[in-house]
Amino acid sequence: MQKFIVALLAVVTLLATVVPSASAHSVSPLKRETNALRFARGLPPLPPTRRHTANSPTHSHTSVPHSGRVQARGCDTGETLGYLGNTPSGPKGLNCHCADDHNDDVLDLTVIFNSIEKSLACEGPQFGGGIYLGASVTADILGIGSASFVTLANVQIGIEAAEAGIWSLVEETGELLIKWKNVDHSEKPLHCAYNNDKDEIVFVGDIAAFLSVNVGWVEVRLYLVV
């Protein structure tokens, strides 16, 4: 009897070493099934998974230039007054495309806006490249309380006596905004004014102060349009 018990224990011990434990080799319920196992069972592959880590590359917004014409609208009515005309000798006021147009022989200017340079490059073979819309630097401080102004002109980037990197574009509306750096390094937003008789556009720091001492001018807003 004792020999039988010893033999039985030996058999049980042998079986324990040969037959693997079910718990040791069972698949965890959290483990993802592989495509190989699904293919073996005649099932389609699993959908791809997306992983994101802190080191994953991100896509930054890049500056895309915008091209179009410069349209002037009256601030009071929102009415379109015309489109900026330009020649190598300088801006030629507004083309209204009407019977009393000042510049019926001048084409509408096409510009390219660059958000990095904050510039409006004059486009067309007549300019030969490197010509931008801006204004000449003035010793006067443009801002609240000042009726001083600068006149819209063709300028070059990098020229000390001129300002070209003054523009920003409101993407939702296409409005062109101007920020001017004075000689004292202060930066001020500027307003635009137009005189129909002179067919001229100027930039001012205080539109109310400017209009109070200058007759025949109206405030306008500039827009980049196709």
What does this structure look like?
The chain has 226 residues and is an alpha+beta fold. It has a single domain (66-225), classed as Trefoil (Acidic Fibroblast Growth Factor, subunit A) (Trefoil). It is 15% helix and 35% strand. The chain is built from four helices and 13 strands. It has helices at 2-18, 22-25, 35-40, 207-213, and strands spanning 66-74, 80-87, 90-95, 110-114, 119-123, 132-136, 149-155, 162-163, 167-169, 175-181, 187-195, 200-204, 217-225. Strands 1, 2, 3, 4, 5, 6, 7, 8, 9, 10, 11, 12 and 13 form a 13-stranded antiparallel beta sheet that branches. β4 and β5 form a beta hairpin. It is elongated. Residues 56-67 have a biased composition (Low complexity). Residues 1-24 form the signal peptide. Keywords: Signal.
Write out key terms for the chains shown.
single chain, elongated, alpha+beta, 4 helices, Trefoil (Acidic Fibroblast Growth Factor, subunit A)
Tally of DSSP β-strands: 13
Q: Helical proportion?
A: 10-25%
Class by SSE composition: alpha+beta
CATH classification, class level? Mainly Beta
Whole-number radius of gyration? Answer: 37 Å
Total helical elements: 4
- Proportion of residues in extended strands: 35-45%
In whole angstroms, the N-to-C terminal distance is 106 Å
Average the pLDDT over all residues and give the rounded result.
79
Uncertain ranges:
18-30, 56-60
- Domain count, please report it: 1
| CATH overall fold name | Trefoil (Acidic Fibroblast Growth Factor, subunit A)
CATH architecture call: Trefoil
Principal-axis shape equals elongated
Order of helices and strands: HHHEEEEEEEEEEEEHE
Biggest sheet overview: 13 strands, antiparallel
